[in-house]
Amino acid sequence: MTAKSYDPETTLATYEPGGVFGDIYDYFVQYNRTVVGARLAGVGTGLALGGGMSYLSPQYGMACDSFRELEIVLPDGQIVTASNESNPDLFFVSRGGGGNAYGVVTKYTVQSRPAGQFYAGNVIYAFDQTDAVIDAIENFIQYNTDPKAAIIGTYEKLPTPDLELNLDEAILMFLVYDGPDAGTAFSNFTNIPHLINTMGIKTYPEVVNMPIPFSTELSAGDNIFRVGVHRPEGGSYKNALNEWRNWAEDNKGKYILLSLDFQPVPKSLTDASKAQGGNAMQMPDGPWFWLNYLISTPPLMSDADYEAVQTSYRDMVAASSNAEGLPLFINDANHDQNPLQTFSTFAKLQEIKRKYDPDNFFADKTGGWSFA
Ligand SMILES: Cc1cc2nc3c(=O)[nH]c(=O)nc-3n(C[C@H](O)[C@H](O)[C@H](O)COP(=O)(O)OP(=O)(O)OC[C@H]3O[C@@H](n4cnc5c(N)ncnc54)[C@H](O)[C@@H]3O)c2cc1C
Predict the structure, then answer these.
(1) Which residues are CB-contacts of 370 (< 8 A; sequence separation ≥ 6)?
(2) How confident is the model at residue 28 (pLDDT cuts 50, 70, 90)?
(3) Cβ count near 155 (within 10 Å)
(4) Are residues 141 and 231 in contact, defined by beta-carbon separation less than 8 angstroms?
(5) Is the pLDDT of residue 213 over 70?
(6) How many alpha carbons lie under 13 Å from residue 27 in its C-beta half-sphere?
(7) Which of 6, 41, 281, 372 is the most exposed place for a label (fewest CB within 10 A)?
(8) Candidates 2, 25, 49: which one to mutate for ligand 1, based on the most atoms within 8 Å of Cβ?
(9) Could you give the angle at the alpha carbon of 22 between the alpha carbons of 21 and 23, nearest 5°?
(10) Which domains does the chain have, with CATH numbers?
């Protein structure tokens, strides 16, 4: 199911759930438009049901905030429309409540967005810039007011021995500006001494293939995610970063890649979400941010070793307390983190779930997040 359409009069776009966002972006670029979706081309459309963080989110909210109408097959086989007018409760839970809880979405109608030239790229730093980069990230999260500027800051730890040379860690910034001239939006990052800077004018399909074309395939291995949520004051995330780095040192050989990603949720994002009706997370005002912890383990690990390393990584993440009153991000969460329970709307979502899936068909027959 990969049909797509664009209506130039309403500027609404439609896409079906098959395929990946890269194909969807490639299609809409002929109209100089795009949809709010994944930051990497190879991710599937289930992303939008879990909220969906995009480089365009600081301007337009999460991917799900741009939904205008969904075609959904309910557990009893009925095909229904969910929108603000038709089954609004089902529409509400579908905007960020995760897939598989109440029906299968067979068509998305969304508000499309302009896509012209982007000034974007990666800046890569060596280990010794760790503190300077974290300060620049904190500064950006707290003070950037230009919603056209989006970042992800990723700390990468490799399994190679440290050898006191500090060659086992790199910091990879993704910097994306919607427009050909970013002004000074990223100066705090580009002014720090770096190894590589690939910033330049790009199309949207080029942006979602950073750092290199086909990078999604490279990152499609055994990636296990966990998520934390923090506010940019108080320095709690500096402790989280330190704990993560200590764990990485103590567990050399037990992973092939570790990554810790800073994903800002600026006030402009939460304002844009509210202006479109809000989503199932009912996101409190930014700025705050999600921390995504990724671990990729070696292919030939025994089951016992795999369990042990995942348990130890889980405990390290759990030891860094999260900010009160903020939701964990479904798309980056591990199943044992129960992200839905961190939503202020959880009781309402459970009620809607009971209405549309009274026999618990999806919980019994499929995976996905549990409302139980
Ligand atoms: C390399 C990589 C990059 C990523 N980048 C981002 C990013 O930029 N932004 C972000 O928000 N997240 C990102 N993620 C996280 C991503 O959102 C989740 O992994 C998400 O689950 C991917 O959706 P999918 O459709 O590819 O996966 P799936 O596992 O197929 O789907 C996810 C869930 O939704 C359900 N589902 C899927 N489609 C439907 C449907 N049509 N109707 C009902 N239920 C459905 C599935 O059953 C499943 O429970 C990334 C993940 C990876 C691995």
Answers:
(1) 338, 340, 363
(2) very high
(3) 23
(4) no
(5) no
(6) 17
(7) 372
(8) 49
(9) 90
(10) 4-114 (3.30.465.10), 118-336 (3.40.462.20)
